[in-house]
Amino acid sequence: MATIDLFNLSAEKLNFVSVGWGNEETQFKGVKKRAEYEAEIKVLSAPSSVLPVEIAWREDGAYFVITWSDSSGPEARRRLHIFEAGGVLHSVGAGTDALETGLCWRPKVQLIAVSKRRAGSCLQMAFYELNGLQHGEVHMLSAPDCDMFRIGKTTFDMEEHIMAVLFLPLDSANNTNLPFVRLYISSNYHWSMKTELSPLPRPRPPPSTPLGRVSLTFGNANEAGTVTLYTAVSLGIGVEGSYLSSWSLVGCIDRSAWHPGAEDPAIVAVIDSCNVGLTALAHATIPPPMCATRLIFPSAVGAVSLSPAWPNAVDDGVTLFVQPTDSTAAPWVLALATNWCGPQRLTSANLTVLQQRQQAAPDSAPCATKAWALKKDAVVYASETASSIFHGQLLHATWISPKKLCFVSQDGRHLGMLTQLMMNDSVTFEVRCLASLANTATSVINGLVYGLSGEIVVQVGDGGIHIVKLKCLEDTARCGSTAVYEFPDVTPASFPFACDQIYAVSFSCQSQALHQTHLVGLQSSSHQLCALPWPTPATRATMTGECVMRSCSSLFLHSDFLLVTSLKNQLFTVPLALESMEFHSVVASLKKRLNSNNFAPRALESGARLVAAVARASKTVLQMPRGNLEEIHPRALVFNHLAPIFDSMRYADAIETMRRHRINFNLLYDYDPPKFLSSVANFVHQISSPEHITLLVSDLTEEDITKTEYNGFFGSKRPLAQAALAEVATHIRDDFPRAPLTEPYPATKVNLVCEALLKAMLPEPKKFILPILTCYVKMQPQEVEKGLALLNDFKDKGDVDVWERGLRQLQYYVSPVKLFHIALGTYNLVLAEAMADRTQLDPKEYQPCLQQLRALCADTGDNRIASTAYQHARIDLLLHRYSKALQSLHSAGLTHWEEFREVVKKQKLFSEALDLLVPGTPQFSEISRLWARELVASRRLVAAGEVHLRANHFASAALIFLSTNSTRRWRVAVACAAASSTADAEAEEVLSAEEVHCQASRLAMNLTSLGRFEEAISIYSECLHDYEGAVSIAAEGGLWLEARRLAHHAADTGSMMALLKRSALKASEDIAVRLTTEAEDFRKSFERLLEIRAELKERTLNSTFGVGDEIFDNTESELFSDTGSVVSATSVGSRDSFLSKSYGRSQKNRRKRERKWSTKRGSKFEEVALIQVLHTTIASCQRLFETIQALTDELWRCGESATAAKLARQADGLLLDHRAALKVVWCNEITGETALGLNEDGDVRPARRYPFHDLALMSCRDLPTLPTGYDDSADQL
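C-alpha cells predicted for Elongator complex protein 1:
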C-alpha cells in the first residue's frame, strides 16, 4: 500500500509537535526527572544499534507503531513512530533514547508498551499514548539482573487482565542465564508481579548449544475454558525439535475461608514479586497495592494459600503456605495472628522473612508469629512418588485441618498431602502421595474440594467428579503399600463443564432439622455457574450437574449466604437456610433466585467482583475493575446479622446497627411484635439517648415493612390476630353505612407501640419529654392536649428549658395555628394565650377572641357553673367540636335551649341530643319530632316511626307503620297506645277504637294485595275478628290447614266448612285448566323443536355430501348460552358472584340477545327460542306442582277423593312428560358433558342447572290411607 523511508522521515519530522496533552516543553516533570533524563542520554546501552525493528498494530487496525534504531547520527538512537493505517505519520514518541524491544499495543486501554533501560539501574516497561507522550512506567528488573537480560516480547491476555513479559539473556551465546516469563496484574495503576515461569523445565542441565528463538502467546484452547499461556523454545541449530509448554491460568483471590465456630478475620493476601501483603478485611478495608502487613521473602513468591481460622486451635488458627516461583527455593509455612504482636524478622534454616506493619492500626494488622522453611532436611517423604510430586508449584492447595494440606502435583496427575508433625520438640513436615490418575487417563486434576463429612471431591477433565473418603486414602498411604489408589477412568458424577472455582455448600431447612450439601462450581471464562447435589453411594452413578446461571462474574460462600454477582452488575444473596418447598428442590430454587429480579438483587458498579464477606456479619468487600475496594452491606446480610440481636433483645446494639445502615426503625416492632411489646421497658432502659426513641416513634407507620419495603428478606410470618383484623378494618371502614357506630380508631400498630412506650417513659417525664410528646402526636386520634398539659406543668414549676424544647418538638409536627386551637380546646385560656405568643400568631386575631371568652365567665355566684359550661360550649363551637358543644350547652341550662336546638338541627345530632335529654319532657318530644321529620324527608319511614314510638307519639307512629305495611310495628304502636293513659298522651297522639279498626282494615287489604296472606290472616282474625274473611284469605293463599283451623273458631262452623269446600273445588278446577293449557303449549313447542332438529340434521347431511343447494348456516347452534342446562362449576361460580364488575353489562347483553330469539317459523334462532320457552314452561310448572300436594290433601279431607285423584293423575302425567323431555331437549350435542359426577353405569353425569323433583306426586287411589309424604306438622314433600 505504501513505502516509508524511516531515515528521511525522522530527519524531516524532528520538530513534529504532538497534540493531546500539550507540548512536552510545557509539561513540568521536576529536577529529579530532568537529571534522570540527562543520564539516560549520556549512558546508552551498547547493543542499541543492533536491536531489531519491531512493529505492532492496534487491535482495531486503525494505527500501527514502529520502534527502530536510528544510526544516521553520530550515535545510534532508538525511535518510536506512530502511523495511521494508510502510512501517514500520526505522532513521534518523546524520550525514546533508552527504549529497547518488547513492543506491544495494550488492548482496551490503548497504550503502547515497550521496554526501557536505565543503564546500571533498572529495566522498565514504559507506556506511551497515541500522541507519543509517555504515560507511566513499570519496574521490571533491578541491578545486577537488569544488565544480563532484556525484554524479548510482551503480550496481554484476551481479557487484558494479565501482562506476560518474556525476558531473554543479553548474551545469547552464554547458556548460563536462561529465559524466563513473568506475569503482571495491574491494580490501582500499580503493576504487581504475580509469578515467574520457565519455558524450560528446571532443574535440568543447561543446553549445550545456544538457544534459538523463544516466543509466547495467550490462548484458551483447553478443556477448562481458562486462559492458557503457551511458550515455545527452539533448542538451536542441529537439535531436533523444540520445547513447548502451556500453563492454564485463572484469576483467584487468596483469602482465608471460614470454619463454623471460629471468628472470621477475612484475611486476604496479595502477591507482588518477593512481597506478600496481608489485610484482615474484617477490621480494615485497604485496597492493593497497600496492605496492613507486608511480608518480604528471600525469593519471588508464586502462590500462597490461607487456611481457615480453626476453632480451638493450639496456635493462632490461621496458617499461610507460601510457594516461591523458583522450584529450587524452599516453600514456607507461617502461623498468623490477627493482631500485631510478632517480631520484625522470622528466621528458619538460615532464611529470613521480614514483616512490616503498613496502613493499619496494631489491632487490625495480621502478624506472622512462627515461620518454617521447608528445606530438604525439614521434609520427610513417605515414598519416591511423594518426593517427585512435591516439586515445582503445587496446585489446588486445600486445607483439611490446621496441620494438613492436600494438593495436586504440578503435572496434575497426583493427589498429595502435606502434614505438620512434632518430632523431638522440632517441627517436621511429611509428604505423602494419596492417589493418582490411571496411566491410561488423558485428563488432569483441575479441582479439589473438601467436604464436612470427611470426603474429598476431585474434579478431572471436563467436569468429571470423583469422591473418596480421605481417611481411607490416608490409611492406605500409611500402611506402607507400594500401590497408590488410582481414580477410575469413568467418573461417577460430573459437572456439565469444568469449573475453576468449586464450593461445597450446605443448605438447611428452616422448618425441619434437615441438611443437604451441593457442589457449586463456576467457569470464569464462560461465566456459567452450575450446581450438583453431593453424590451419595446410592446416587453417584447417575448424578449430573445443571447450569443454574449463565452470567455469573464471581461468587463467594458466606456463613449464611451464597453471594453471586452477575454480568448485569447485580449482587444476588441466596440464603443457605431455605423454606421447605425450596429445600426439597435446591437446584430449581437456585435457578429461580439467580435469574429473576423478584428477590431484590443489589445494583453494583460495572465490573465489580466479590473479594470477601465477613462470616456472621454483613460486611462485603468488592473490587472494582481498576483495583480499588468498595465496602457494602447487603440488606439480606444486615437483616441476618440483626436477627440474633433482636432475638436476644440487645436493643442498644440493634439501634446502632440500624442507624449505621439506615434501616427503617419500624423493623424493631415488625420483626416480632409480641416480644417487642412485652419488652418495651427493657428497650427504654437500654437506650441511652432519648433521641433514638424519638426516631423510632417518628418512623412508625401502620404498614408491616417485612411485607412491603423489606419483602422477601424475612420469609412468611404468622400475623397477629388483632393486627390482621385492624388492618382489614381500616380498608373496609368506609363501606359501613353507619360509620359512627364503629370504633373510629382500633388498637393499631402505632397506637400499641405509643401506649407501651408512654407507660414506660411517663415515670421519668423530664428525661423522655421529647419522645413522650412525639408519642402523643403520632397516636390516632392525636393527644397533643395531654402533651401541652405536661409541658404546662413544667412551665408552672419554672422549668423553662423543658417548656421550650417541648414546644420546638411539637412545632415539627403541628402547625402554630393548630397548636393554638389545641391549647384553646383544653379550656385553659392562659395556656392558649401563652401558646399563641410562643408560636408568634398575630395578636389582632386571637386577643379579641380570648377577651370575649373571658367575658362569658365574668359573673360570679350561683351562675358560675352555667357560665363556665357556656364558655366551654362557645370554645367547642369555634373548634367545630359539635358533640362536646352539645354537652356543654345542655349543662348550661334551658336558658340556651334555642341555641341547643339549632345546633342539633344544623349538625343533625339528634341521637346524641336524645341521649342527653330526659324522656317524657317537652324538649325530648320536640327533638324527636325534628328527627322524625328529617327521617321522613330522607325516605327512612320505618326509622321515623321508631323515633315517634320512643317519644310516645303513638298515632304518628301507627300512621307511618301503616304506610310502610309494617304489620308487627303497627300492632306494637296500637298496643302501646291502648296501654297508655289518655291524660299522659298528647291530644293529637291518641288512637280511638274506630281509627284502629279503620287502619286494620286498610292494612289487611294492603297485605292481601301484596300476597302476604299469613299477615293478613292475623289482622282479620286477631284485630278485626272477621273469621269469614280470614278463611277466604287463607283459601286464596293455599293455606288450607290454617283455613280449616279458623273455620272452627267461627260462630257458624257449618257455613265456614262449606265455604272451604267450595274454595278447594274452585282451586282444583283452576289448576286443572292451567295444567291442560301448559300441557298443550309444551306439546306444541316440543313437537316443533323435534321438527327443527330433523331439518337441521337433514341439512347437515346434505351439506356434508354436497347435495343441498343452499349454504348451510349453523349459527343457531350457539346454544351454549344461559338457556343451556349444563354449566361448569366455574361458570356457576362466576354467575353467582354479584361483585363482578361486568355483571350489569353481561345482564344487559343477555337481554339484548334474548330479544333476537323468536319462535316465528323459519327464524334464524328459532331453536334457541323454543328451548327458552320449554325452560320457562318447565320452571313455572315446578312452582305449580309445589301447591298441588296441599290441595289434594284438603280435597281428600272434604270428601272429594275422586277430584283429588284426578288432579294428581293429571299433574303426574305432565311431570312425567317433562322428565322424559329433559334429555331430548338438552341433548349431548347441546349441553356436552361435565365431570361433576358419575352415574350408576360409570359414565359422566351431565350437570343440570335447574332443580327438578326426583319423586313424582302420588295419586290418591289408595285412600283412605294418607298420601305418601303427608305430615301433620308440615306440608312438604
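Residues 1062-1134+1152-1277 form one domain.
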